[in-house]
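Batch 3, record 17
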Amino acid sequence: MTVTDKPVIDFDHWSPQYRANWQQIAAEFHATGHPLAWSPHHDGFWVLADWDAVQHVASDWETFTSVNDLDGTENGGLGQVIPRQPYRLFLGESDPPLHTGRRKLEAPFFTPKALRRWRPVTRRFLAEAINSVIETGRANLIDDVLVPTTARTTLHVLGYDTDAWRDPADVAHKGTFLTYDDPEYPHGQQKRMREAFRDMLTARSKAPTGDLISALATGLVEGSPLSLDEGESMMNALVFGGFDTTVSTTASALIWMDQHPHEAARIREDAAYRANAIEEFLRVRPPVTHVSRTAVKDTELLGQRIAKGERVMMWLAGTNRDPKHFPNPDVIDLERANARDNVSFSAGNHRCLGSPLAKVELNEMLGTIGVHLADMKVDQEAVSAYPTFGAVIGYTRVPVTFTPGTPLALDEVE
Amino acid sequence: MPKVTYTSHTGDTRTLDGIAGDSVMQTAVRNGVPGITGECGGVLSCATCHVFVDDGDLDRCPPMSELEDEMLDGAAEDREPNSRLSCQLILSGELDDLHVTTPEFQE
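Prediction for the assembled complex:
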């Protein structure tokens, strides 16, 4: 039987209540036995946290579109983010066959063979970041270590000047927890960064170098080259996708490890344990809060009628706590057998292309930061989280102290 | 039920009853067969479900898409003429009793 009345939930992922209580909100939502309800916020949307239903919504693109139809010429889709963003993500906010063609340009840069090239790059940038603080005995892990490591690795993969990481890092960092209308929003840096992206796309289209920017500048999608808008948007998404997401989960894990020294030691020493621990950290501390779809026809989900034009938010953070899929979901069990079923990278065709790179970075950072920064202690009282968790659950400050050491020898980057 | 036989690079063999409509990758992951990762869940974006299909079974497999072909180039272990990404091998009445060998590395 299809239910047409809407069960309602007072759910606003941008609110202070969400930031303070999201885990409890997830537990209560699942306790209803029907984790699909209508939120009246942000013009109204369905909140979904059922693991099986999320797999279905993420895969059935013919019913649930990712398109952000800003100029009203496509299918009326409202994009991947709630509230709707005025800047279109041409990879994330598209459906097959355009999505398949666009993704194909980037996919070869994230294969297992490609990752063999990126691991030493991450290691090098991590060592340089550590060296910038190692003699001082104190650091803000976010700004001093995690952001430069992930930002420079992503820029290296792109083919962007890795020493010019501060603008993109600032844009990705502040752009993640500030809304467009906030006076602190980095509009200036964003404009500079996007202009630089366009200049590079133009240059690479004339003289390709084999990097990701060249692939975007010269590749064909459905027989046509990408427009500058499309190329710029895809570079922009790689920056947003590759910086603060990985930083956030790494920071969450390091904060937890500080409070659990026994497990922390095992994470550093045991590679198999570390790999599963990373999956569990991703499950309980997913960086990305949600990804949204729009129904392009009337349909049914978990017995509930969903009308054409309605948005369905896949609440990734809540889905990772579906007790039907993850028993005792609030318990952090680093040996949880199905931890890798987390949906932190989304699911279906739009599942994060960079997830293997994120895991390489997490692996390097969780495995070695606590070794290089000897006796590291997190100042838990001074940890400062993002002012909002609407897009990403992350941190602005994670201050640490450690026994000062001598700089690490730097291996050559390929 | 369609059967799949997985042989590891060291020669360990396991035969599973699969479900028609499931892929060779899904069947392996659900049953804990080592040697297949399937990081992306089957959407051709990770190349971590690389297998070598027994030569006698190769002709029964569906044709390879351009994207699968391209992704196979990036697999951890170098591809061979009988290489496939097992997320693209969907079990059915026709694709039954399939024999594959898993590579030593997927990552």
